[in-house]
Amino acid sequence: MVAVKREAYLKRLEELREKQKTVTDAEELKKIAGQIKYVEKMIYRSSFPPERKDYTVKVKLVFEGELTVYTPSKKEALETVKRNFNARLGEVTAFTPEILNWDIPVKPQMILR
Fold first, then answer.
1. How many domains does the chain have?
2. Does 94 reside within a domain?
3. In what helix (H) or strand (E) does residue 99 lie, and over which residues does it extend?
4. Coil/strand/helix, residue 30
5. 90 backbone φψ class: left, alpha, beta (φ>0; ψ -120 to 50)
6. What letters, b where the CB count within 10 A reaches 16 and e where it falls short, cover 88-97?
7. Which domain holds residue 31?
8. What is the rounded CA–CA span in Å between residue 68 and residue 71?
9. Which tens digit of pLDDT belongs to each residue from 26-75?
10. What is the radius of gyration, based on Cα positions, of the chain?
11. What is the value of pTM for the model shown?
């Protein structure tokens, strides 16, 4: 059964690559590229033993550190940080000059559930 599926995916991949050579429309090429990526993923997955399953693992990434904020009160400092400070994977951004410095490790703590 797995071998038959794999052969079908290989055939489909060949068809898509041939179609990709003839198409000139950018949107159509993008669509075909997405289909090729999907089929390649399915070919890769079909090489695993049948007893292998996918599992979803929830992950929480926690960044913890300190900010130095130049404001008249602690309450204003909290509001300034809430409104003007942001962190995304690989990027820390302060949107106001009142946030003078931050000491937050780039590598977060990982919590698995």
1. 2
2. yes
3. strand 99-103
4. helix
5. left
6. eeeeeebeee
7. 2-46
8. 10
9. 999 999 999 999 998 888 877 777 776 777 777 777 877 888 989 999 99
10. 25
11. 0.44
